[in-house]
Amino acid sequence: MTLTVPRRPAVARHDPAAAALRRRLRPLHAAVFLQGFLLWVPVEKLFMTELGFDAAAVGVTAAAYSTMVPLLELPTGILADRWSRRGVLILSSVAITLGALLGGLSQNVTMYVISALLFGVYVACYSGTLDSVVYDTVLEEIADGGDFQRRLGRVQAVEAVALVASALVGGWVAGLLDPRVTYFLTVPFALASIAGYALFREPKLHRAAEPVALRRHLQLTVRAVSRRGRLLPIVTLGVLVAVTSQLVFEFGPLWLVALAVPAAAYGPYWAGLVSTLGFGGLLAGRLRLDRPANAWAAAVAMTVAALLLTADTGLVVVTVAQVTLALLTGLAAIHVSAVLHDAVPSAIRSGVASGVSSLSWFAFLPVALGFGALSTAHGVREAGWLLVALAVLAGTLLAATARSAQPVAREAQPVARETQPVAREAQPVAEAADAAVPACA
């Protein structure tokens, strides 16, 4: 089975609307790059050890961070819809600035746990809000959300470049000076990202009509996320691909530990894994996962990659398998984001995206605990069968949602009708999606 890459029906490169869109997104690209330049990430565990962290303390910190993100994502998404999406992104930069500063100043476990919680605030403010900003900007400039996947992919590619570059620079700085210095050097980059967001012209589609009461807004957001029918499989797919991706990034290095590879191998391995964010972003919009042939091929590749992680293989095979899984789940996540944004009105778009992300984090907690327990009791290869199960479920659902010609956006029509007083642009968005976005039967 082969992947088919259709000729992209994108806006012409020299089209005035496309040029205006590129200019408008430049400050956002700059802000995302600066915010993603996290010099401390590659040496965080080393620094935590120097502070006195043991395995139990590291687990408590991860649990605290993982709990903070889903608890805040839905409230921050609704805040972005009702107040300002650019403002919430600026708050994310403030959170990462304070987190890096406090992390560098930490002298004990307690201080560092607080800095980790601030990083959780950053993730909660950033995740669903950024996608919504990109979607509405595309819609305002070219009156069609069809270019969203490619534009979001480019934003993610910019972020991936920042992550890879900062990982390499951060490791060098830590070796030359001290791991603590990487936290302080991250602060000016985070502060500079605030200027980038401030220069970005925020789309106004979510303010197109009179606001409704907060309680009504919350009801509409929750209903859009939990509604039965064609949209529910898309939400479920989003959760599955997010949990699979998180497992790879959080537990992937355990395969290297099991193989007893030298420490020098971890740098190139991690750079390769993180680079999938960039490659996935560049492929988004070109490799259409709403086409059955592409979706089935991706499903098969995900399953084979997961199966390889249960076999007795070497470093190269493990790295290729994990990179493949990370790349394909990243592409699937962009596909899900596009379908969700097509299916809901702008007035609740950030809240819905953040709500789905919150569900993913809540689902990840028990899966991570189960994977950790299986890995401790039986070994990481045996625990890899859990990853196989997730890959099969995600791949099957990805293929199933691409099978039907019926648009997912029709499922959103009852919600869109209820939100007409909130966002009058929902109807043209739904009509455009009816012509372009497939869903499951």
What does this protein structure show overall?
By secondary structure, this protein is mainly α. 76% of the residues lie in helices and 0% in strands. It has helices at residues 16-35, 44-51, 55-82, 85-105, 109-142, 148-176, 179-199, 214-226, 231-251, 253-259, 266-283, 292-308, 315-343, 349-378, 380-401, 413-418, 426-436. The chain is globular, with a radius of gyration of 21 Å.
What is the strand content? under 5%
CATH-derived topology of the largest domain:
Growth Hormone, Chain: A
What is the number of E strands? 0
Count of folded domains: 2
The shape is globular
Q: Architecture of the largest domain in CATH?
A: Up-down Bundle
Q: H/E order of the elements?
A: HHHHHHHHHHHHHHHHH
What is the helical fraction, as a range of percent? Answer: over 70%
State the name of the first-level CATH class of the largest domain: Mainly Alpha
Low-confidence stretches: 1-11, 404-441
Radius of gyration: 21 Å
Described by strand count, sense and barrel closure, the largest sheet is: none
Structural class category: mainly alpha
- CATH superfamily membership of the largest domain, which one? MFS general substrate transporter like domains
Gap between N and C termini, in Å?
23 Å
Helix count, DSSP H or I runs of 4 or more residues: 17
- Provide the residue-averaged pLDDT: 77
